[in-house]
UniProtKB/TrEMBL annotation:
Species classification: Bacteria, Pseudomonadati, Pseudomonadota, Alphaproteobacteria, Hyphomicrobiales
Protein name (database record): Putative spermidine/putrescine transport system substrate-binding protein
Pfam families found in the cross-reference section: SBP_bac_8
InterPro entries: SBP
Keywords tagged on the record: Periplasm, Signal
Length: 346
């Protein structure tokens, strides 16, 4: 069951001894937990104070059907929602989001190209890449070719269970330059080539489902290296004193986005909130809490050096990294998942 939390950031306004009736308060929806705690401190509360209007925040577990149902049912009870890239693409196609006023945001050129959409604004960037325990390896792996090299680096490997990311990494291990991966994957024989490369490593793969599992696999020594999420790696290094490395070249970064649900009664206030949360000086406050990248190109420059090196949007970390091609996975996810599951069972 979806867990919802709500925090009202303002008091009811009383004038002349009578209750003034207002339209529903601006409602912003994100992913909950420590991440949303940080957003509340950095975005929600300061925006409410600056605008002089209440902000209600709730959390959700994702799922495009939830958003579509709210819009199709009539006036939605949510205004601004943080969504993943696939949910952004589907909602844009189905026209369940309002158009973004990019003039309020300082123009499209101020953001990573992959963070720009007619109906969504990139909010955070997170990467999936090669990770390892620096305390257990004398030499650090530098590429997916190293990941596939079981002679040079004996031991098991961890990969996320599913075709997404596994196919991209397999092609890179087979010598395809990162910037050409989706061109090859979309072309004749590309998918076959990726599965053939996975065949080579299949006996040595430990498959994982949840983001916490790669950390457990590395900590226990069950794998010598694994695909993992960069924020998880930096988090355990900070909290438990681990020395897990993360290789940004060859990583695939994805972007979460702010959207405004179609026919929101607070459309203008929603746009004002997104503009506030997208300011470089405000985005730059997030890495102190969690190592997510910042879509505003000016924000990373404002992050203290002690946090900057961990971000996927730092200029150095973007070298050799590629954005997840959402259109490819929107079009092919079902078919490739079926093929992957059949391959896994062979």
């Amino acid at each position: 069951m979806k867990f919802l939390t709500a925090t009202l950031i303002a008091s009811t306004i009383l004038m002349g001894g009578a209750l003034t009736v207002h339209a529903r308060d601006l409602t912003v929806v994100s992913w909950g937990g420590n991440f949303q705690d940080a957003q509340r401190k950095i975005f929600f509360e300061p925006f409410a104070k600056e605008s002089g209007k209440p902000v209600l925040d709730e959390s959700w577990d994702g799922g495009y059907g939830v958003l579509r149902a709210k819009v199709k049912a009539g006036t939605p009870n949510w205004d601004v929602v943080e969504v993943e890239s696939e949910e952004l693409a589907l909602g844009c196609a189905d026209v369940i989001y309002e158009k973004i006023d990019w003039q309020k945001l300082g123009g499209k050129e101020a953001y990573l190209p992959a963070a720009v959409s007619d109906c969504g604004v990139g909010n955070i960037v997170w990467s999936t890449g090669l990770s390892y325990d620096a305390d257990k390896l004398k030499e650090a792996p530098k590429s997916w070719a190293d990941f596939w090299d079981v002679k040079k680096f004996p031991g098991k490997r961890g990969l996320r269970k599913g075709p997404k990311y596994a196919l991209e990494f397999a092609l890179m291990a087979d010598g395809v330059p990162a910037e050409k991966v989706y061109e090859v994957l979309s072309g004749p024989g590309g998918v076959d080539r990726a599965f053939k490369k996975l065949d080579e490593l299949k006996p040595d793969i430990v498959w994982w489902d949840a983001g916490a599992q790669p950390l457990q696999l590395l900590s226990s020594g069950q794998v010598v290296m694994t695909a993992a999420y960069n924020g998880r790696i930096s988090g355990i290094n900070r909290s438990e004193g681990k020395h897990f490395g993360f290789v940004f070249p060859g990583s695939v970064y994805a972007i979460d986005n702010w959207v405004i649900l179609k026919d929101s009664p607070n459309k203008d206030a929603a746009m004002d909130f997104i503009a506030y949360a997208s300011k470089a000086e405000n985005q730059a406050k997030l890495p102190e809490f969690i190592a997510y990248g910042l879509p505003n190109l000016g924000a990373t420059k404002l992050v203290p050096d002690q946090y900057k090196k961990e971000l996927p949007t730092t200029e150095e970390n973007l070298k050799g990294a590629i954005p997840l091609k959402v259109d490819f996975w929107t079009d092919n996810s079902e078919e490739l998942t079926q093929r992957f599951n059949a391959w896994l069972g062979q």
